[in-house]
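Input/output pair, single chain:
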Amino acid sequence: MKERLDRPIWTALTGRHSHLAEGGENARRYPADVSAFVATRDDGPESLAALAALARPGEPMLFLQAGAPALPEGFRLEKAADGVQMVAERPFPRIEDPRIAPLGPGDAAEMLALAELTRPGPFSLRAQSLGSFWGVKKNGRLIAMAGERLKVPGLTELSGLCTHPDEQGNGLGRLLMTYVAGEISARGEGVFLHAYASNGKAIRLYERLGFRLRSAMQIAFVEPAASDGARPGRSTAGSACPRHGR
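Output:
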């Protein structure tokens, strides 16, 4: 599991999400309108050169991995935060609730609006390309949702969990989290998730629900600096910017 989850983006893009991948054998990314996620096979010079070739002006790239990412020369760290990766210790039972319904392409704009309001993490109009999503609506308005993101062999990431501020405290987040975890478990897969290390409240909830801490993670937005003709080399993202909750 260590190799699969230390670089979960790379594992997904070379496996179950390979149909979405841009890049080659040393560096890959998702299409920009799906996700800003990017990853390298390792920290060697060939991987860093391949990463540099995937860069697009004005488009930050997002790393999520154990340890700070190595960056090509001419790239800068825009912001970084400490994260945690948690894995379910046992399968979740499948549950039913009449309030929960699958979300589809027609819900994409409303899903994005809810994510932008609550900021559970990076989200896009094409987030459903990564996996299935479910939500709860009230008077025709989406008020809570959760779904799937990174997929690695034998495991699927639970992500996009958010509840409209007017409906928080009603147990919808916990309900949707256990529902999605149950759907993943029903396929015979393990469940994992990520959270900002600063979000102690969420981490404690996840622990009560049966998740354990597997690894510290680094969340880093990087982008090319102004072109100076330098060849890709090796440097390591180090300093962290203000952290965000999830």
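DSSP finds six helices and 13 strands in the chain. Residues 146 and 161 are 4 Å apart (CA to CA).
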